[in-house]
C-alpha cells in the first residue's frame, strides 16, 4: 500500500469503525475516496489525522469534519442508491464525494466561490459525474433541485434551518450538528405529512457553517 492508502485504512479502522459505523457502503466509500485530494498540498500529511481540518485558506475558515463524525452522520442519513441528496457547506468536496459513492444524484452547495470551484475540480478528477457543485449560501439550500430525499449539513448550525427543512421530500431525512444548546448534538429531522420530527442521534461538536450562526441579540 502507498502511504496515503495505509493512512486511509488506519483512519477507517481506528477512527470510524470504533465509533460504531458498521454500514459497509459508508466504510467502502471512506476507503475508496482519497481524503488527501480534498486538502491543500501543504496539509496533505494531516489529511488522516483525527481532527477537523481547515481547508479554507485565504482567511476563509472551512473544514473537513473529523472522519468519525462524517461516517456517523452518513450512516444516520440512511442514504439509498436511488436518493437525490443535498450536501450543505461542501467545503472542498470530501463529504460530497462520499455521498456520491452511495447516492444516485448529489447537489453540493458552498458559500465561497473559489472553494466551490476547487471542490468541483476535485470531484471531476475522481470521475464522480453524479455531483453538481454550486456557489450558494448554506441557509438557502438548492430549492430549484428540491425535493431531496436526504440533506446533509456538513458542519454545525446554531439556528433552525427552516428553509432546508422545506426542501425535504415526503419521508426525507436531514442530518447535521445542531449547536443551539450545550452540549451540541447531531440531530435527525424527518418530514412526514408536512410535519417535521426531530430526534437526537448523539452528542457531537463541529465548526459552525457560515450563514448558520446565531446572531447576537441586542439587550436594552
What key phrases describe this protein's structure?
220 residues; Rossmann fold; 7-stranded mixed β-sheet; two-stranded antiparallel sheet; 6 helices; 9 strands
3D architecture notes:
- With 220 residues, the protein is of the alpha/beta class.
- The chain has a single domain, classed as Rossmann fold.
- Helix content is 27%, strand content 26%.
- The protein is built from six helices and nine strands.
- The strands form two sheets. It has a seven-stranded mixed sheet, covered by helices on one side. A two-stranded antiparallel ribbon has the order 1-2.
- Helix 1 packs antiparallel against helix 2 (24-32) and helix 1 (3-16) crosses helix 3.
- It is globular and about 50 Å long.
Question: Could you spell the SSE succession in H and E letters?
Answer: HHEEHEHEHEEHEEE
Provide the gyration radius in Å: 16 Å
In what order do the strands lie side by side in the largest sheet? 5-4-3-6-7-8-9
Q: Strand-residue fraction?
A: 25-35%
Output mean pLDDT.
Answer: 95
Write a brief caption for the model.
The protein has 220 residues and is α/β, with parallel strands linked by helices.
Question: Could you outline the blueprint of secondary structure elements for this entry?
Answer:
Layout: H1 3-16, H2 24-32, E1 53-54, E2 63-64, H3 67-77, E3 84-88, H4 94-102, E4 105-110, H5 113-125, E5 131-135, E6 148-157, H6 162-165, E7 168-178, E8 185-192, E9 195-203
Parallel strand pairs: 3-4, 3-6, 4-5, 6-7
Antiparallel strand pairs: 1-2, 7-8, 8-9
Helix pairs in contact: 1-2, 1-3, 2-4
Amino acid at each position: 500500500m502507498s502511504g496515503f492508502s495505509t493512512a486511509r485504512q488506519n483512519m477507517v479502522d481506528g477512527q470510524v469503525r470504533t465509533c460504531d459505523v458498521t454500514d459497509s457502503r459508508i466504510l467502502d466509500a471512506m476507503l475508496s475516496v482519497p481524503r488527501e485530494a480534498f486538502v491543500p498540498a501543504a496539509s496533505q500529511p494531516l489529511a488522516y489525522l483525527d481532527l477537523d481540518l481547515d481547508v479554507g485558506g485565504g482567511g476563509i475558515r472551512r473544514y473537513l469534519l473529523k472522519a468519525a463524525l462524517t461516517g456517523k452522520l452518513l450512516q444516520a442519513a440512511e442514504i439509498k442508491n436511488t436518493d437525490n441528496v443535498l450536501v450543505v457547506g461542501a467545503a472542498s468536496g470530501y463529504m460530497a464525494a462520499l455521498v456520491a459513492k452511495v447516492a444516485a444524484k448529489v447537489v453540493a452547495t458552498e458559500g465561497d466561490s473559489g472553494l466551490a470551484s476547487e471542490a468541483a475540480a476535485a470531484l471531476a478528477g475522481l470521475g464522480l459525474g453524479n455531483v453538481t457543485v454550486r456557489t450558494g449560501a448554506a441557509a438557502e439550500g438548492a430549492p430549484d433541485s428540491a425535493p431531496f430525499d436526504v440533506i446533509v449539513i456538513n458542519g454545525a448550525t446554531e439556528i433552525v434551518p427552516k428553509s432546508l427543512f422545506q426542501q425535504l421530500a415526503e419521508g426525507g431525512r436531514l442530518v447535521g450538528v445542531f449547536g443551539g444548546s450545550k452540549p451540541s448534538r447531531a440531530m435527525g429531522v424527518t418530514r412526514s405529512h408536512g410535519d417535521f420530527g426531530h430526534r437526537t442521534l448523539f452528542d457531537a461538536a463541529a465548526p459552525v457553517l457560515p450563514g448558520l450562526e446565531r446572531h447576537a441579540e441586542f439587550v436594552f
